[in-house]
Specification:
This protein is α/β, with parallel strands linked by helices. The chain contains 17 helices and eleven strands.
Length: 348
């Protein structure tokens, strides 16, 4: 597990040197003065499952700028590749939080009574405009005349998994060309491996998140043929499990730290400094990150529940759900208390 640890020894040294006395304040303690008055420096561990990508930039900012430290949180994070993996760990109590899509695994877990809740939104398509989602086709196919989804019937189209947002997004893309996902051959490939799959002619097209999409384009093996086809959709959410939900003070503290990073990324955008820290966490070069189209982050972490209901209906039509009538997702999945409390604290 990759671990981001706060050193209590370093804090003790700073205090011993008098940097906590108020006479002289360094950058780290200047940040701490803006933290919630309810923050505690008794370390509490929060284990986070996260798919390394540009969309997770608010978390990287909160981590790097000490916002979790300000709240007394020792954030330990585990990279994951698919939602089902993360949700299984959250439901079992091995992770407190995961940044996931609301796919079939989540919905079936809820139907079984697993105590997991959506506590905030992460990223998605903007209310209008292009956003970051791009659908790519292999460069030689583009040059031969495939310029939209209508030319992909029977073609090999890649995504990271079925039963997750990727499947829903590919279907949205296909419908722009009068097709559906049933008209293509789906190929499951982890997002980081999709640029290589294009380069090796192993796939014809793909839905792939940033910065991997820009990486494939930069290497000259793929060309975007669709943008804006996921406008308004909720892509990823912050999902909490019982080990966090049972500790309201910890949940509120986590949300305060998270929302500070969310506000920073909205105020600043992707700067060279932000790109550098994204590179450290994703291993994608900072120059590629700067070229990528950033996703839409709601500055208050709100969730588009209508989009999630549409995704549920899609999975139900695909036979991926173990129940026959749509659930009221806001009622059974929503837990907005920590977010509202965090907003109230930060807005004081």
């Amino acid at each position: 597990m990759r671990v981001a640890r706060v050193s209590s020894l370093l804090l003790a040294i700073l205090l011993a040197l008098g940097l906590g006395s108020g006479d002289r304040v360094g950058p780290a303690l200047a940040i701490r003065e803006t933290a919630s008055p309810d923050a505690t420096f008794q370390q509490r561990t929060v284990r986070l499952g996260i798919l390394p990508a540009i969309g997770q930039a608010p978390v990287y900012l909160s981590l790097e700028r000490g916002y979790f430290q300000d709240e007394g949180i020792d954030l330990q994070w585990e990279p994951v590749q698919v939602t089902a993996e993360a949700i299984a760990q959250v439901g079992a109590g091995n992770l407190e939080v995961a940044m996931v899509t609301v796919g079939a695994a989540v919905l079936n877990s809820i139907a079984r009574g697993v105590n997991i809740k959506i506590v905030a939104g992460l990223y998605g398509g903007p209310p209008s405009g292009d956003g970051s989602d791009r659908f790519l086709v292999r460069k030689d196919l583009y040059d031969s005349g495939i310029r939209d989804a209508s030319g992909l019937r029977g073609r090999r189209v890649a995504g990271n998994s079925l039963g997750v947002y990727t499947e829903y997004a590919i279907d949205l893309a296909m419908r722009t060309g009068g097709l559906t996902i049933d008209d293509i051959e789906f190929v499951a490939i982890p997002f980081p491996d999709i640029p290589a799959a294009f380069a090796n002619n192993a796939i014809d097209a793909a839905f792939v998140i940033e910065p991997m999409a820009t990486r494939a384009i930069a290497q000259g093996s793929a060309v975007p043929i669709l943008v804006g086809f996921t406008a308004g959709e909720q892509t990823t959410v912050v999902m909490a499990g019982p080990s966090l939900l049972s500790d309201r003070s910890l949940a509120d503290a986590f949300m305060r730290a998270y929302l500070r990073g969310l506000r920073d990324i909205n105020a600043e955008g992707i700067t060279p400094q932000t790109a550098a820290l994204i590179e450290r966490h994703t291993r994608v070069p900072a120059d590629v990150v700067l070229q990528a189209s950033p996703p839409y982050w709601d500055p208050e972490g709100r969730v588009n529940w209508d989009s999630l209901m549409n995704q549920q209906r899609f999975y139900m039509a695909r036979g991926r759900l173990n129940y026959s009538e749509p659930l009221d997702l806001l009622r059974v999945l929503g837990e907005d208390g920590p977010r509202q409390a965090a907003l109230a604290a930060l807005n004081r």
